[in-house]
Amino acid sequence: MREILFKAKRKDNGEWVEGLPTRMWGTLHIQGSDNENTAYEIDPDTLCQYTGLTDKNGKKIWENDILKAHLDADYPEDTTYTRILWNETGFCSNENHSRDIETFGKWDAEHFEVCGNIFDNPDLLEVE
């Protein structure tokens, strides 16, 4: 069974916090996974779900993460960047400068590494 976990940026200091989202006092909070009595008000636009997968370095892969890989052994200088997103079929990826959306799975996770996310590193999506 996949671990259900979310992360988002805290409204008070902009730091990422992981846990489960909940509505409190009319706003969205994340109840911290480290302490069940702690809840942080979050920016709902930054809410991301954990995919249940880790990258080739063991780092958790989240919705809206940007991943990179060197997939062509003949051209090791070429880097492929892809963004993780959710659609009706589950977690998918969208490679830079492509309209194609592809299923994202264990093979991909084992070959890519997390290098940022669309909130903190949008410039990575501009790389050719």
Layout of helices and strands:
Blueprint: E1 6-9, E2 16-24, E3 27-32, E4 39-41, E5 48-54, E6 60-62, E7 65-69, E8 80-87, E9 90-95, E10 102-103, H1 106-111, E11 113-117
Antiparallel strand pairs: 1-2, 1-5, 2-3, 3-4, 5-6, 7-8, 7-11, 8-9, 9-10
Describe the fold and architecture.
There is one protein chain. The chain has 128 residues and is mainly β. The protein folds into two domains: 6-45; 48-126, YopX-like domains (SH3 type barrels, Roll). It is built from one helix and eleven strands; from the N terminus they run E-E-E-E-E-E-E-E-E-E-H-E. The chain has one helix at 106-111, and strands at residues 6-9, 16-24, 27-32, 39-41, 48-54, 60-62, 65-69, 80-87, 90-95, 102-103, 113-117. A hairpin with a 6-residue loop joins strand 3 and strand 4 (39-41). It is elongated, with a radius of gyration of 16 Å.
List keywords for this structure.
128 residues, mainly beta, SH3 type barrels, 2 domains, 6-stranded antiparallel beta sheet, 5-stranded antiparallel beta sheet, 1 helix, 11 strands, 45% strand, elongated
The second-level CATH architecture of the largest domain is: Roll
CATH superfamily of the largest domain: YopX-like domains
- Report the C-alpha radius of gyration, rounded: 16 Å
The CATH topology of the largest domain corresponds to: SH3 type barrels
In percent terms, what proportion of residues is strand?
over 45%
| Molecular shape | elongated
The overall number of domains is: 2
Q: What is the helix/strand order?
A: EEEEEEEEEEHE
> Regions with pLDDT < 50 over 5+ consecutive residues?
none
Helix content estimate: under 10%
Residue-averaged pLDDT = 88
- Please report the first level of CATH classification, the CATH class of the largest domain: Mainly Beta
Q: Please describe the biggest sheet, giving its number of strands, its sense, and whether it closes into a barrel.
A: 6 strands, antiparallel
Query: For the terminal residues, how far apart are their CA atoms?
Result: 37 Å
Number of strands: 11
Largest beta sheet: strand ordering: 4-3-2-1-5-6
